[in-house]
Design a protein that fits this description.
The relative contact order is 0.10. The chain is α+β, with helices and mostly antiparallel strands. The radius of gyration is 25 Å and the shape is globular. The strands form 10 sheets. The chain has an 8-stranded antiparallel sheet. The mean pLDDT is about 95. About 20% of the residues lie in helices and about 30% in strands. A hairpin with a 2-residue loop joins strand 10 and strand 11.
């Protein structure tokens, strides 16, 4: 059935309505492309050229053939009946993925338009296998086995179609189309809603760290992490004026609280699509930046990709096809203070144009760090096929938007000799190489959201996104006078202490005595969000946590250096450090922060006790200095002002607490 062709470093299988090509891509990695068209596309999207040598050998005949690249191999057996699946992948000779046919094999392709098809690739499920990755969303899931996920971006959800398996391999679905992933008990399936071909990479290693390195060879490594970014970031929605922001920064310094960054949120501008300060409220940006620098504080400024006809840049960008267009109807794709559309960051001319505006109106004042909000982009309705980008229709390429949005600022800043860091709300495989710090969007101020954030951070790390954070306290619906929120903010601060980036943010409910400082201003501020605003009992607790973070900078930067070299995240699931300990694959609510710290967050209202699993070794409670032998589960107590973290015996990091 079909025709099997063996080449020196390529295995080709062709049958009616299907062409499959499998070839090596660097060390211990195979790339597979399957299309119904006459030839495969050479488009790699965000994948880099191989950075390691392959060790490819192709053997067999026109009935059964194997392509082997190091410890990974794939075998085509045309003698198998079509309903049994002819393609099997192996790691060290043991099967890891076996093609599964659900119905006729032609069900892989359902025609959409032109040369594009709805494409699905299905494999048999492996009993006992665990999957990690798939980006971030508000779900109480870290192990993806038994779950499904839409492949799409929206506020609070950023999908990266990447899986790390407990069987020692990784899977990267290299299709930027929206779609679906199912890692259920009956199959493992990836679907692209509209694509020219199926395109995926399978790579393997001896440890999860080895697998991650192979993945980062494909998509890139995070750059050097600046030391200031390892400290505490102060943020709220929003500081309305230059004087208000400076007064907060001065108060932090007056109180002796370590602060490394402060953020100017949205609507500081004259109009959406005009990337510059409103001079009425921000009269002297250069003086503001200079004063903050004297205090040792980095200024971060929000940039939105929205634009409308009121913007002075609209018609030039619209006529130059630098904006996201609609396939039918008018420009509007987001109704927020009028109908907005979005800049088309996939267009290199757009990236150049926008950066020149940002360079003139922000960078020239000394502002080098930007908050890239709305990075999905947040279109309504969420119908990707309605949108037209520089690289094609959204049904085929929509998932790429945050990748190119981050690249806009990375390219501009590196051209100026800077080391870019950008805070962004969405990502795609490869975003890490542009210095993207991802956060999980506008989540609610609830203990449930705190619990889900723990799993989001771990999941993003397994997708090669090592720089991650959440809004400490959650973004919306937080009442700073309520006992519920005052407990939540402490527990979230404790989690933030052990996150790659520690950033306080949120739109807090305005209290009855709230004074509107600038009546009539567009998008006025929410309630107070500085650490002295959450109650007298909480203030010393939060101040102490920030001081600990300041002492942890050397430790954090050490592991950020490792991230740049190996792809290893600093926020690590338990199995990362103990891949042979099967219990570690089942733990979803405790993790390593670097190699020497184990953190077990408390994420339930009223909770002061929880169980903590300590793996092999001797562990020291960082607060009490009590020692525990590993290989056991212990029950620990932590009052509100306490947290549960353990250091390896003999580790210098213990002296930071």
């Amino acid at each position: 059935m079909g025709k099997l062709i063996l080449e020196e470093k390529r295995l080709i299988y062709q049958r009616k309505d299907e062409l499959t090509i499998i070839e090596p891509y660097g060390a211990n990695c195979l790339r597979t492309r399957i299309t119904r068209n006459a030839k495969v596309s050479e488009e790699c999207w965000t994948v880099q050229a191989p950075v390691t040598e392959d060790a490819c050998v192709v053997t067999g005949d026109d009935k059964v053939a194997t392509i082997q690249n190091g410890i990974v191999s794939a075998t085509f057996d045309t003698r198998r009946p079509w309903f049994g699946g002819m393609l099997t992948y192996y790691r060290y000779g043991r099967p890891i993925l076996h093609e599964k046919c659900e119905g006729d094999y032609t069900n892989k392709f359902q025609h959409v338009e032109g040369e594009n098809y709805r494409i699905q690739v299905i494999f048999d499920a492996n009993e006992g296998e665990h999957f990690y990755g798939m980006g971030q969303e508000l779900v109480d899931v870290f192990d993806r086995k038994g779950s499904t996920s839409q492949i799409i971006h929206y506020n609070t959800k950023s999908t990266l179609p990447v899986l790390l398996s407990s069987l020692g391999y990784g899977f990267f679905w290299n299709n930027p189309a929206p779609g679906r992933c199912e890692t259920t008990r009956n199959h493992t399936m990836f679907v692209a809603d509209s694509a020219y071909q199926a395109d995926y990479f399978i790579y393997a290693g001896d440890t999860p760290a080895d697998v991650m390195k192979r993945y980062c060879d494909l998509t890139g490594y995070a750059p050097k992490f600046p030391r200031w970014a390892a400290g505490f970031w102060q943020c709220k929605l929003r500081y309305e004026s230059q004087e208000e922001l400076l007064s907060v920064a001065r108060e932090y310094k007056k109180r002796g609280i370590p602060i490394d960054a402060i953020v100017i949120d949205f609507f500081h501008w004259t109009e959406q699509g005009e990337w510059k300060f409103d001079p009425k409220y921000w009269p002297n940006p250069k003086a503001m930046v200079d004063e903050l620098k004297e205090m040792g504080i980095e200024l971060v400024v929000s940039i939105w990709p929205t634009i409308n006809p009121k913007s002075e840049n609209y018609y030039e960008m619209s006529e130059g096809n630098m904006l996201v267009r609609t396939e039918n109807g008018q420009y509007g794709t987001f109704d927020f203070y009028g109908q907005q559309t979005f800049i088309d960051a996939m267009n290199p001319e757009t990236r150049r144009f926008v950066w020149e505006k940002v360079k003139e109106n922000y960078y020239s004042y000394g502002i080098k760090t930007f908050w890239l909000d709305e990075a999905e982009p947040e279109v309504h309705p969420q119908q990707p096929s309605h949108l037209h980008y520089y690289l094609g229709n959204g049904a085929q390429v929509a998932q790429l938007y945050p990748y190119y949005y981050s690249r806009t600022f990375y390219d501009g800043l590196t051209a100026e000799g800077e080391q870019p860091v950008s805070l962004t709300r969405a990502a795609y495989p490869g975003s890490q190489k542009f210095g993207a710090i991802v956060w999980n969007g506008d989540i609610p101020s609830t203990f449930e959201a705190l619990k889900m954030s723990i799993k989001s951070g771990l999941s993003m790390g397994m997708c090669g996104i090592p720089w991650w954070n959440s809004d400490i306290g959650g973004f919306h619906s937080g009442d700073i006078e309520s006992p519920y929120f005052r407990e939540l903010i402490v527990r979230w601060f404790q989690f933030g202490l052990f996150c790659p980036v520690m950033r306080l943010h949120g739109v807090r409910i305005r209290q009855s005595n709230y004074e509107f400082k600038n009546p009539g201003i567009i998008e006025p501020s929410g309630g107070a969000n500085e650490i002295w605003c959450f109650g007298e009992e909480n203030y010393p607790i939060l101040k102490n946590l920030i001081e600990i973070r300041d002492r942890l900078k050397d430790y954090i930067c050490k592991y950020m250096e490792e991230t740049s070299e190996t792809g290893a995240p600093i926020m690590r699931p338990m199995f990362w450090e103990y891949p042979s300990d099967q219990k570690c694959y089942e733990l979803e609510d405790q993790y390593f922060f670097g190699k020497d710290l184990l953190f077990a967050p408390i994420y339930q209202q009223g909770q002061t006790e929880r169980e903590v699993y300590l793996p092999e070794g001797t562990w020291v409670h960082v607060l009490t200095k009590e020692k525990f032998s590993g290989g056991q589960t212990i029950r620990c107590h932590a009052a509100l002002h306490e947290f549960l973290a353990f250091a390896r015996e003999g580790s210098e990091v213990l002296f930071c607490f």
